[in-house]
Amino acid sequence: MHISKVRIQNFRLLKDTTLDLVGDSNSQLSLLIGKNNSGKTSFIVLFENFLKSKRFFYDDFPMSLRKKILEICDETDVYSLAIRLSLKIEYGEEDNLQNISDFIVDLDPMCNTVRIAFEATVDKSKLLKDLEVVTKRKDEFIKKNLSDYIQIGYYIFDSYSDFEAEHRSNLIKKEASDVNNLINLKVIQANRSVTSSDASPQDRRILSHLTTRFYNSKVKMSHDDLYDINSSIIDADIQLSANYKTFFEPFLENAKSFLALTALNVVSDLQSKEVMASHSKITYGKDDTELPEHLNGLGYMNILYLLLNIEIEKADFEETGRDINILFIEEPEAHTHPQLQYIFIEQISKILNGIKGLQTFISTHSAHIVKKCNFKNIRYFQIPKGEENVDIRNFYIELQGRYADEENAEIDRVEKKHFKFLNQYLSIESSELFFAEKIIFIEGASEKMLLPYFINQFDEDDMGDEDDTALTSQNISILEVGANAKAFKHFLDFLEIKTLIITDLDTTVQQIKKGENGKKNSVSYPACPAKTGTHTSNSTLRHYYNSPEFEDESFPAWMEKLKNHDHDDPSPLIKIAYQNIEENGYQGRSFEEAFVSANMDKIGSNLEDVDGLKNKDNFDECKSDPDQFVGDMLDSKGKSSFASSLLYLALSKEDLKWNIPSYIKEGLKWIAK
């Protein structure tokens, strides 16, 4: 038995949002990810409000509905304003239907779902009656007191239209106790009370307090499991009672003479709960190196806190025996380094294994946790541009669908290959893309080393527009993807992340060698200077700008448009920066040529200190032609050395500042906005 779909209406940014758990029926774990303020915490809070606190406030309603609430009158349809949480629950033949039977209304034996809704509505008649005596600032009265006029109802429904005013007779009302018998909710919140050595003495014992809670939960569940502890306490009671008798006997004899009591005794009455609470603590270390818990690192404290809380919640899940058990864990990465995050997420499924009907939801901002999870379990929270409602995307299924083309087998094969690469890349290389505000993809090691320098220089020299935020102050992920940027197109569209792709023109020229003795002509495409290029070997440019096939006679015309930068950008959120701009009357085909063209004089002034070069004596012959410089002087195996020495010189010489190639500068201006 499990929840397969959640729909939320009219709660904060979750105006009409659906979480689809299709594909998770065999998984205990769902990962809730997304940028800040994308609704993850609100999603969790809504469950708490309906199943725990039973309280809602004015600020819980979406901004778009608040005016209607403030102007409430007899004609107001309060059901259209209601905060609603709807659950679709699926069950099977192997499930015990005792608790859920109260919610089964379809007698069709083939039906295996029930739909339960929690609804918070404004008690219109009560609020309007009380507003009659409010003479001033009725809107302020509503804002401050609305929670007192919100009533919560529980319903079985068949269709979402049942919640409309004219169809509400189709709803079947249930009691809170019916729901509580079916669903058990636990939340381990992000604002955990894990503190360091500068905390107050009481706060320093948070883990010790948790061990007491854990012990007490076990006391309720199984007395036999605690036999040894209880036996020790009974033995201590006997010994302490004997010692008390000896110590208090003179006093008790005097007391009996005054009070005419025949028997007055002081006996030990140790309680295991009190012993745990007041006379136990967590330490770490051994023997004479033992230290109290608050001197441990915050990362270890956080993990221990999580594990103890999980064990406590597990005990409650097992004791209550509900059919639907929901556990939310908020931001387990707090204070922990990446390796601990890896270990936690790898072990969490094992820890939670075996609890009947358990579904665990972990919200996180950690790329390390995402990296170690099955991408099929990711649910991505997103507010589409221009909208005021959160979408929760089934990342794997929805994205996989974009990388498919059933009408064209060849395209379908290529796109599926791209999706496979993307899946592996995000698992192995970088899951931080999920949390980036902006992305810059670069092609090789030279750009990877020098781009941070270019970005700092861009900011220092105020190359952006006046209102632009400094690039170094923006959340921009820079990733080296080689020639595989083409594989990210649907991913970038899916996440709606502004992305700059820095790549090379990579011009080639078509050469046809006539076949001899009746053989077919052979065609090759060797590298050549940009000015003579008829083709490009860059698959990223061909993919994003929809090039014709190499052999197509229209390719040279497409190539001329590419060299002149006459193609439209792939989308408003994706820009490709390549050597489309002449530098000192020269157009390069690669980063190195464009950089040399922009910095030839400075390279000449520092020639002896620039690594990765050969034939330095030929500089005077090559300095007027970047193509010749790269061809004759740049060691094909020394590009990394060339780039690293350029960076070293820029950082070590106060009077040296390299010029940013124009195409990169143009790209940085675009991504800065």
List the helices and strands and how they pair.
Layout: E1 2-11, E2 14-20, E3 29-34, H1 40-53, H2 63-70, E4 83-90, E5 113-122, H3 124-131, H4 138-145, E6 150-156, E7 172-174, H5 176-182, E8 183-188, H6 206-221, H7 227-259, H8 272-278, E9 283-284, E10 291-292, H9 298-320, E11 324-330, H10 338-352, E12 358-363, H11 367-371, E13 378-382, E14 391-394, H12 395-402, H13 409-428, E15 438-442, H14 445-460, E16 476-480, H15 489-495, E17 498-502, E18 507-508, E19 511-513, E20 522-524, E21 535-536, H16 539-544, H17 555-563, E22 574-577, H18 591-605, H19 619-622, H20 626-632, H21 639-652, H22 662-672
Parallel strand pairs: 3-12, 3-13, 8-11, 11-12, 15-16, 15-17, 17-22
Antiparallel strand pairs: 1-2, 1-4, 4-5, 5-6, 6-7, 9-10, 13-14, 18-21, 19-20
If you had to describe this structure to a student in words, what would you say it looks like?
- The structure is a single chain.
- The chain is of the alpha/beta class.
- Among the domains are: 2-26 and 35-181, no CATH class; 203-296, no CATH class.
- Helices cover 39% and strands 17% of the residues.
- The protein is built from 22 helices and 22 strands.
- Strands 2-1-4-5-6-7 form a 6-stranded antiparallel β-sheet. A 6-stranded mixed β-sheet has the order 8-11-12-3-13-14, with helices on both faces.
- Strand 9 (283-284) and strand 10 (291-292) form a beta hairpin.
- The two termini are 49 Å apart.
- Residues 194-205, 272-280 and 291-295 have low confidence and may be disordered.
